[in-house]
From TrEMBL, chain A:
It comes from Clathrus columnatus. The keyword Cytoplasm applies. Residues 22-153, 156-219 form the Exoribonuclease phosphorolytic domain. The lineage of its organism: Eukaryota, Fungi, Dikarya, Basidiomycota, Agaricomycotina. Keywords: Cytoplasm, Exosome. Coiled coil: none annotated. GO terms for biological process: nuclear mRNA surveillance; poly(A)-dependent snoRNA 3'-end processing; rRNA catabolic process; U4 snRNA 3'-end processing. This is Ribosomal RNA-processing protein 41. One of its GO terms (cellular component) is cytoplasmic exosome (RNase complex). It is found in: Cytoplasm; Nucleus, Nucleolus.
From TrEMBL, chain B:
Belongs to the RRP4 family. It comes from Clathrus columnatus. Keywords: Exosome, RNA-binding. Residues 58-136 form the RRP4 S1 domain. InterPro entries: Exosome_RNA_bind1/RRP40/RRP4, KH_dom_type_1, KH_dom_type_1_sf, NA-bd_OB-fold, S1_RRP4. This is Ribosomal RNA-processing protein 4. Pfam families: KH_6, S1_RRP4. One of its GO terms (molecular function) is RNA binding. PANTHER family: EXOSOME COMPLEX COMPONENT RRP4, PNAS-3 RELATED.
Length: 264, 291
């Protein structure tokens, strides 16, 4: 922490020019699906970029782990060595990554309808391309969208956001600079029901502040959800239009479009 | 982000938005009142739940569907108990099962399966072999059994011979009058309803028919015929057209393929250049204007 950075200046601006409650640029991209993955999504929060690939539901690779009444979810996180300031290679067994993978897994287990796919496996691979704070939130948002892209049924979206407190003032969507300096919480929310599926905190935070920033994070997640939903809807509409574009299948596609409107 | 020049995304779509906390500013494009409680209540089956299931899902089997699959595992007798079966990857949520009893073996269609057949299972289908089969049954947990009993399938299951496999999203393959097509360019096409499409050299009609002449050697052989360059190019061209259609999410039918093939010939476009963005887009616009 050394020479301290001013987290929130007198004018109410943060180091990157945002205000207290302002989120960073949020970018959703479904278009790079060159891979063989069933679902794919790139999510960018400011300078943090995360790609999620979803494979499955498919035949489980480890037979002994399969469950007869539901699918298993398998999460692997990989951080590109060039993603952050200090170039560093993290192996597969890296403790921190394993922990992140485990928390992503437990975030999605109650949301994904795994009971529909007995004896199957859903693989989620997360690739971190750029890191500037909020890596977990980006990973969770990317995973939600990739799962939807893969057509895997869920009871709700999961939208996540990081929230911190700088001397009693709550801040949303922290950058690395802020994360190093400020106690913060990452919250994952199911926006429609308002249920929280994940809260993680690696720093110490005064208990009086907790309630406030939890609620702030929940409402911010709901804002993110609207954009995620808009993106999914836009993408789906594009696909349906493409399918109907060759004439013969137009009617069918239109019907599907209707169904999707209800479904999404 | 990264982009590989020769193989660009299938449908361009991305959204960028600067987001704020609702207290700061609402630049949100959606109206909240649409969010329906229906969704959370009627989530009993994949078709009804939150995702646009039908558009993106993996293959969901239905009885008597024609599928193309790849053997993932051979399970011969184990301690003299049941499994004499193959496991087949059919792009579904689980591997399908092909029992030894559900394939045609040399020496007569209705013959009893012997122990020697079990021992030779790998001579019929080995790991990695491709086959055409029909869905025979679906069990309660969603896994399916296949059969290749009809000679047509048996014959068509010419393992890894004379062709190439393309994978597309299953929804793009429609149920048509037949899933077998011989395109005028000398290429045979098998549209598996699971999204696996087999593109191969044309085999003559009389070879495909005739129960008496069931030649196990030929059916289960893995050796390629001699294929001339023109046919190879034709196969590659059809494959690339299918890839482009899949990328732009256009349903694949024989008539569209024939139209596209002719268009490509007119353009005198090199097969490998076909996948490039501008060529692919031109192809798609041409197809759309045709219909």
């Amino acid at each position: 922490m050394g020479s301290r950075v001013e987290i929130l200046n007198h004018g109410g601006y943060r180091s990157d020019g945002r205000r207290q409650y302002e989120l960073r640029n949020f970018d959703i991209d479904f278009s790079g699906s060159n891979s063989t993955a069933d679902g794919y999504c790139t999510v960018t929060h400011g300078l943090t970029t995360v790609i999620a690939f979803v494979f499955g539901p498919r035949e489980a690779s480890q037979r002994n782990l399969t469950m007869h009444d539901r699918a298993i979810i398998n999460v692997e996180v990989n951080v590109a060595p060039f993603s952050s300031n200090d170039r560093r290679r993290r192996g597969r067994g890296d403790r921190r990554l394993l922990e992140l993978a485990a928390s992503i897994k437990s975030t999605f287990e109650p949301v994904v309808q795994i009971h529909l796919y007995p004896r199957s496996e859903i693989d989620i691979f997360i690739q971190v391309m750029e890191q500037d704070g909020g890596f977990l939130q980006a990973a969770i948002n990317a995973t939600t969208l990739a799962l939807i892209n893969a057509g895997i049924p869920m009871i709700d979206y999961v939208a996540a956001v990081t929230c911190g407190v700088s001397s009693t003032k709550p801040l949303l969507d922290l950058t690395t600079l802020e994360e190093n300096d400020v106690p913060h919480v990452t919250v994952a929310v199911m926006p429609k029901t308002g249920k929280v599926t994940l809260v993680t905190m690696e720093t110490r935070l005064h208990v009086d502040r907790f309630d406030e920033i939890l609620n702030l994070a929940i409402s911010a997640s709901k804002t993110l959800h609207l954009h995620m939903r808009a993106a999914v809807r836009g993408y789906t509409t594009d696909l349906v239009r493409a399918m109907g574009s060759t004439g013969s299948t137009g009617k069918e596609a239109a019907m599907e479009d209707e169904n999707m409107d209800v479904a999404i | 982000m990264f982009k590989i020049a020769s193989f660009p995304p299938r449908v361009q779509h991305s959204i960028t938005a600067v987001k704020h906390h609702p207290d700061v500013e609402a630049d949100v494009l959606m109206d909240l009142d649409e969010i329906d409680d229906e969704v959370t209540t009627k989530i009993s089956s994949p078709g009804e739940s939150l995702t646009s299931a039908s558009a993106f899902m993996r293959y969901t089997p239905e009885m008597a569907d024609l599928v193309v699959g790849r053997i993932t595992e051979v399970k011969p007798i184990l301690y003299y108990v049941l499994p004499r079966k193959w496991k087949v990857d059919v792009n579904s949520r689980q591997d399908a099962v092909l029992h030894l009893a559900s394939v045609n073996l040399p020496g007569g269609v209705q013959r009893r399966k012997l122990e020697s057949d079990e021992l030779q299972m790998r001579t019929f289908f080995e790991d990695g072999d491709l086959l055409v089969a029909e869905v025979q049954g679906i069990s309660a947990d969603g896994s399916m059994q296949l059969h290749t009993r009809t000679l047509k399938f048996g014959k068509a299951s010419l393992n890894k011979r004379n062709g190439q496999l393309v994978t597309v999203p299953p929804i793009l393959v429609r149920r048509l009058k037949s899933q077998f097509y011989a395109l005028p360019c000398g290429v045979d096409l098998i549209l598996g309803l699971n999204g696996y499409i087999w593109v191969s050299k044309h085999t003559r009609e009389q070879e495909q028919e005739g129960e008496v002449g069931f030649d196990a050697e030929a059916v289960y052989s893995n050796k390629n015929d001699v294929i001339d360059t023109a046919t190879r190019i034709a196969i590659a061209r059809v494959t690339n057209i299918i890839r482009i259609l899949a990328r732009f999410f256009i349903p694949i039918t024989d008539s569209i393929l024939i139209g596209a093939y002719e268009w490509v010939l007119d353009q005198e476009c090199d097969v490998k250049d076909l996948l490039q963005d501008e060529n692919a887009e031109a192809l798609v616009t041409a197809i759309m204007s045709q219909t």
